[in-house]
């Protein structure tokens, strides 16, 4: 059985979990709770970057991080459903995943600066710069929202939906739906899929 190092708050872990559920591979994965912020964590054994997700295959092979793991799962299912084979569809899906992951990287920077960094060390201009990038990305997604899939999502749509939920979960941009009606409508529909319903981000109990 494969072993997944995970945190219930990580949007990148959620992306992997949604893919596994969509591909009906979730029963083949043992989930190992991991707090990558804990100095005592042994996550570096599975990922030298000290990040989740990290997947250990049956033969001991280590895979990280989420783009690699998600594509591996799609190859294991043999469907090419989440990572299309056709060139135009493939590059569109990969571009959207890259945009969503970049949105998360930027938003996580804001979260760390505003929440985890001591008050006296916070850099307001840096936060504003990053928030501007978040706004640009959200506006770009609004511009192509009507082209996003709901019934047969690719890795692009999965990554975008996970990123948008995390913005609200961590309070980085809880108002992103305002003035973005098409993106909000799409997000509301895709998040009704069972794979999203059961993976809603939450704080560890």
From TrEMBL:
Domain GST N-terminal: residue ranges: 1-81
SUPFAM superfamilies according to UniProt: GST C-terminal domain-like (SSF47616), Thioredoxin-like (SSF52833)
GO CC, alphabetical: cytoplasm
Protein origin, superkingdom: Bacteria
Transferase in keyword set: yes
Pfam families in the cross-refs: GST_C_2 (PF13410), GST_N_2 (PF13409)
Record keywords, A-Z: Transferase
InterPro entries linked: Glutathione-S-Trfase_C_sf, Glutathione_S-Trfase_N, GST_Omega/HSP26, Thioredoxin-like_sf
TM regions (residue ranges): none
Signal sequence region: none
Molecular-function GO term, any one: transferase activity
Name recorded for this polypeptide: Glutathione S-transferase
Organism: Plasticicumulans acidivorans
